């Protein structure tokens, strides 16, 4: 049952909202988490948690239990069928997590929800936001059925179509129509590829991501002209035959689930409107290239949770302006980086030999490989200390 008042109302129980709530709960802040869905989704896009994100999750006690559920990938590779064009090793990252953790977003949400429950906070479902009144101190949120909650602060972690953002009057500029179409699926395959590293295959018909997950599952993500509503074995086998390894081809044996989505690139005009603050996809969406989306949202959430806790402990309200000032340029950088990776993967046929040569040259230069690893891992955004 919804409380009538709370210090912080978090709308959205994906990784971003759960992380924000857990950060606040660890600091002793009364927090209420609501979500419009009756049950958490069992399918999801994100399949990697990078080193910097794991460091941030360590701060709130969620890093170790998540690492225990995932596959540690020591490197990321880019291939043209059987030819390796680029290796990006993570083993020398300046982090206690020198790897990329391959794990489904659904598992990430399970771990965060369990940690939140241990802090005596549970997700309240299903509650759909139907209004947000910002008059007076704090905000009053209204939900379907007429229930209301007064909160000192509201965190919008409710995704690309954020109701919090819309009710707060924050614009979300960008193309009105999505561009590329993507298919994604979790499958079981007979494959000679290593089961401890993700691979991006570059092919004339488009890129294909092959990412291992625990329990022998492989996540496939591919840009296609028009993704089907339900991709079957034959469809996904066709993508692997066309884009994947050639000498020892993969064979799809089972499709566990499939979905589709379209690419959007948008950044909110503001990350704060009075008592309302945005984090994750509510504030920024971009290409899935590099697996940056969920990671950026989680890092947003830890920053926001810590900042809100400082304010509620007596710090100046202007600290929240600092949160907004930090997150926007980071979002701009990640949107640019992910977009650049997508453009690199989808260059016209005439430019592909030059692109492949460039990737091979980068692979031969340790400083270049290190810079790419720092960007992918998120460590390039870690604040300097000392």
Describe this structure in words.
This protein is an alpha+beta fold. It has two domains: 5-47 and 104-174 and 265-346, 3-Layer(bba) Sandwich (FAD/NAD(P)-binding domain), CATH 3.50.50.60; 181-262, D-Amino Acid Oxidase, subunit A, domain 2 (D-Amino Acid Oxidase, Chain A, domain 2). It has helices at residues 15-26, 51-59, 63-67, 105-118, 163-167, 233-243, 293-312, 319-345, 352-363, 366-377; strands spanning 5-11, 31-34, 48-49, 71-73, 75-80, 83-89, 100-102, 123-124, 129-133, 139-143, 148-156, 181-190, 198-201, 208-212, 218-224, 251-262, 266-267, 272-273, 276-278, 284-285. The strands form four sheets. Strands 1, 2, 8, 9, 10, 11, 18 and 19 form an eight-stranded mixed sheet that branches. The chain has a seven-stranded mixed sheet with strand order 6-5-13-14-15-12-16. Helix 1 links the parallel strand 1 and strand 2. The longest helix has 27 residues, at 319-345. The chain is globular and about 65 Å long.
């Amino acid at each position: 049952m919804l409380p009538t008042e709370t210090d912080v109302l978090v709308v959205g129980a994906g990784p971003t909202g759960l992380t924000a709530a857990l950060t606040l709960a660890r600091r002793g802040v009364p927090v209420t988490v609501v979500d419009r869905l009756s049950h958490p989704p069992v399918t999801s896009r994100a399949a990697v948690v990078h080193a910097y994100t794991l460091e941030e999750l360590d701060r709130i006690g969620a890093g170790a239990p998540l690492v225990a559920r995932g596959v540690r990938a020591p490197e990321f590779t880019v291939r043209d069928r059987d030819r390796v064009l680029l290796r990006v090793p993570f083993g020398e990252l300046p982090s206690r997590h020198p790897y990329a953790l391959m794990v489904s977003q659904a598992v990430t949400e399970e771990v965060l929800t369990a940690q939140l429950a241990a802090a005596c906070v549970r997700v309240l479902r299903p509650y759909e936001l139907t209004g947000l009144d910002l008059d007076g101190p704090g905000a009053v949120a209204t939900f379907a059925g007429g229930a209301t909650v007064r909160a000192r602060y509201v965190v919008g972690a409710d995704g690309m179509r954020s109701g919090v953002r819309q009710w707060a009057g924050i614009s979300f500029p960008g193309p009105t129509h999505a561009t590329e179409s993507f298919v994604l699926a979790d499958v079981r395959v007979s494959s000679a590829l290593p089961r401890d590293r993700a691979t991006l295959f570059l092919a004339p018909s488009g890129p294909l991501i092959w990412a291992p997950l625990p329990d022998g599952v492989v996540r496939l993500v591919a840009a296609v002209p028009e993704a089907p509503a339900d991709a079957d074995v034959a469809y996904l086998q066709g993508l692997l035959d066309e884009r994947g390894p050639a000498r020892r081809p993969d064979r799809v044996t089972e499709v566990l689930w499939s979905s589709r989505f379209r690419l959007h690139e948008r950044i909110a005009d503001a990350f704060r409107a009075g008592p309302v603050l945005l984090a994750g996809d509510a504030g920024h969406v971009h290409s899935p290239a590099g697996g940056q989306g969920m990671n950026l949202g989680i890092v947003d959430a830890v920053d926001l949770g810590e900042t809100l806790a400082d304010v509620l402990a007596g710090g100046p309200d202007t600290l929240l302006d600092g949160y907004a000032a930090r997150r926007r340029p980071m979002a701009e950088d990640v949107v640019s980086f992910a977009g650049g990776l997508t453009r690199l993967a989808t260059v016209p046929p005439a430019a592909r030999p030059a692109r492949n040569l460039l990737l091979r040259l980068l692979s031969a230069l340790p400083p270049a490989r290190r810079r790419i690893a720092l960007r992918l891992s998120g460590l390039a955004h870690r604040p300097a200390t000392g």
